[in-house]
Structure formats: C-alpha cells, structure tokens
Amino acid sequence: MNIFNLIAGNWLHGPQTTQRFPLRQAPAVAFRGHVAMDPNLCVTCGICADVCVSAALEVVPTPSECSWTYDPAACTFCGACVEHCPVGALSQANDRGPSYGLPGEQAVTITVDYPACSSCGRPAMPYSEALLQTAFPEAGSELRSRARLCGDCRQRVSVLAMKKAFGGPDNTEGDSHGR
User: Fold this and answer.
1) Quick check: helix, strand or coil at residue 157?
2) 148 and 123 Cβ atoms separated by less than 8 Å
3) Where does the chain have alpha helices with state H?
4) Contacts of 96 (CB under 8 A, 6+ apart)
5) Pairing relation of β-strands 108-113 and 35-37?
C-alpha cells in the first residue's frame, strides 16, 4: 500500500474517535497520575522544582508569597517531586486526569501566602516543624522562635544574641527593627 492510498482511505473514513475515559480499563494499582500540592503544608522550599527532570514544576518566590505552578503536559509522572518533598505537601492522583489537547492547557498555579512575622507582622517565609527537626534535630525553643521571624527581625535578634554572648553593647535604638 502506498502513502496516497492510506491518506485517501483516512480521508474517506473521516476522523476516528478514541475510547473515552469511562470506557477505559482502570489504571494499575501503582499508577501515578497528576501531582497535587497542599498549600497549607507547603513551605515553598523549591525542592520539588529542583528534582523535576521534565521542568513540569516551577516555584517562584516573592517577598510576600510564593507561586507553585504545575503543568501535567510536561510531567513524566515519575514521582520524584512527591518523594523528595520534605513536608509531604505533594501527592499524586491514583487515577488518570482529564484529557487535554494543548500543552499548558491544564497548568495549575497555586499561591502560598507567607505567614506574618511574629515580631513585626511582615510576611516571613513559612517553616515546618518536620523540616526544622530534619535540619536541626536538637533545635531548642530559641531556634524555633527565630524560624517564625522575617529575615530582618531574624537578623536583628541574631545580632543582639551575638552582642550579648560577646559582651558588646545592647544598643537597640534606631528604627523599628533595632538597627
């Protein structure tokens, strides 16, 4: 059969439909589908985007929030992002997602707002007790309280602690952040 006969046959028969999802067989037990993120657990560390071999994930931090974008059309569904998430904020569906025609058509962006600094009220990057425990297993209450501060307040508290430890002056006059 030559190519012209094939084209003519396809043209005469018209478009063929594929089987729709309800008629398909159920996925295998270990099936890994679309990735989902729980914004209440996410600490915006970006590890998921770093380990994503297909660049299906993007994490973009700003001073007050972080956006997490997932494009299932680019995803290989390998599960590396879920496996490496230190706080368990990512999961994979155990069923097939909806069909789509164009790349980026089903991309999802979730914005994670940073919690308020416990000292000044400005946005501070979130932290997780699990992540803190992994990084600093013997962390005390002082480190845990510093983790809830914004960068400026954390720096101010650290400088004051160093001055106190080395016998320097405890000068907290200046602007609202003690500089």
Assistant:
1) helix
2) no
3) 3-13, 47-51, 80-84, 129-135, 141-146, 151-165
4) 21, 24, 27, 31, 33
5) unpaired
Whether the pTM exceeds 0.85: the reply is: no
Amino acid at 47: I
Helix and strand numbers (H, E) in the chain are 6, 5
A 10 A CB-CB count for 19 gives: 8
Tell me 62's DSSP state.
Answer: -
How far is it, in rounded angstroms, from Cα 131 to Cα 169? Answer: 34
Domains in the chain, CATH or no CATH each:
27-113 (3.30.70.3270), 115-171 (no CATH)
Which pLDDT tens digit goes with each residue over 93-144?
A: 887 777 776 777 889 999 999 989 989 999 988 877 777 777 788 878 888 8
